[in-house]
Design brief:
single chain, 346 residues, alpha/beta, Nucleotidyltransferase, domain 5, 3 domains, two-stranded antiparallel ribbon, 14 helices, 12% strand
Length: 346
């Protein structure tokens, strides 16, 4: 079966717009590529699946992440194709330029995305299931409520407590906070019905200084196949891996940027909690902050670098318990013994 899939494996690129889907399908063998266009509606997505036919069973799909316009076709293809992936439009454009395609239109973009599907066969990050996506959207809505409540509270500064504006803003902020708290309970009930999300949530909760909010964000924002992804790639996915920038004899200091901002925000709050409230990582944080060779101009810069290291440590702890599928233990479990002969062979 595996060899048949290798022969029949196809690569589909989809350029998504609000009203249209431009598609380009190429193959791993000598078969001629084909292209078409479908409306970005439920009927159009079903017509795309019918157009793929038998090719859908061994098809790797890459489509641009375009606001919410890609969600319908993404969810439709998740039930028909073995692999569906999203690609940032900026990365797709960079690949287009790298392939020497200077033109920019829907057909060219779809062709480039099909080439991306061919080139990204070793990519480990997968798209979550429909149920996991719904839990992720629900979690993000809760976080947005809390963020909006914080904005209203911020606007209270400078207002008289007796003014109508102050009372209206305070009331709205409190209502949003109460609504978010109620939705947290509903989210937990729904997450309990999705086994993998609930498993990750409970395992993350077992790590010291990780609370319900951080565990919720981790359970929906991490890749669904987190057990199969290397620790290094997950750290990069979260935006906590320093990126090198060097060419020839010129070299800039490594910098941290990109990644999943929601996951990073949740880890930041957990890291602050582990340093200032539970004191679990206080010694680790202080040792990093006191290092003299850290090249920063302000005390705040030292704090951010140290707290980022704490965030990375917490994420590694969370990933470790998920991969091990066992709750956090105060004493590190012993590693399985590997015979010297196998170590030499490795």
């Amino acid at each position: 079966m595996e060899s048949v899939l290798q022969v029949l494996f196809s690569f589909l690129g989809i350029d998504v717009s609000k009203g249209m889907l431009e598609v380009f399908l190429c193959y791993s063998d000598s078969r001629k590529a084909r292209s078409s266009r479908f409306p970005n509606t439920q009927e159009g997505c079903l017509a795309l699946v019918a157009w793929l036919g038998e090719d859908a069973h061994g098809c790797r799909v890459v489509l641009e992440a375009t606001s919410r316009y890609h969600r319908l076709v993404e969810r439709t293809l998740l039930g028909s194709c073995p692999v569906v992936e999203l690609l940032n439009p900026r990365r797709a454009r960079a690949l287009s330029i790298g392939l020497g395609l200077s033109d920019k239109d829907d057909k060219v973009d779809a062709k480039v995305l099909s080439q991306a599907a061919r080139l990204l066969q070793e990519r480990e990050i997968a798209v979550p299931t429909i149920e996991a996506q719904e839990l992720r959207d629900f979690s993000r809505a809760i976080d947005q409520m809390k963020e909006d409540a914080g904005k209203y509270l911020k606007r209270l500064e400078g207002l008289s407590p007796e003014s109508a504006a102050f009372k209206a803003l305070l009331k709205t902020a409190q209502e949003l906070k109460d609504l978010a708290a109620a939705q947290e309970l509903i989210w937990a009930e729904k997450a309990a019905q999705e086994p993998n999300t609930w498993r990750i949530y409970k395992l993350a909760m077992s790590v010291p200084s990780v609370g319900k909010v951080t565990a919720r964000a981790v359970s929906v924002e991490l890749p669904p196949n987190v057990e199969k992804v290397s620790m290094r790639k997950i750290v990069g996915y979260a935006g906590l891996a320093p990126r090198r920038h060097a060419s020839g004899d010129k070299s800039l200091p490594p910098a941290i940027y990109g990644g999943n901002p929601r996951l990073r925000t949740a880890l930041f709050m957990a890291a602050m909690n582990s340093v200032y409230r539970t004191k679990w990582n206080l010694a680790f944080y202080q040792a990093l902050k006191d290092r003299k060779h850290i090249s920063v101009k302000t005390e705040g810069g030292r704090h951010l670098k140290a707290i980022t290291a704490v965030m990375r440590k917490l994420l590694c702890n969370i990933i470790a318990v998920i991969k091990r599928n066992e709750p956090w233990q105060k004493v590190q479990p012993a590693r399985p013994h590997v015979p010297a002969s196998k170590q030499a062979a490795a």
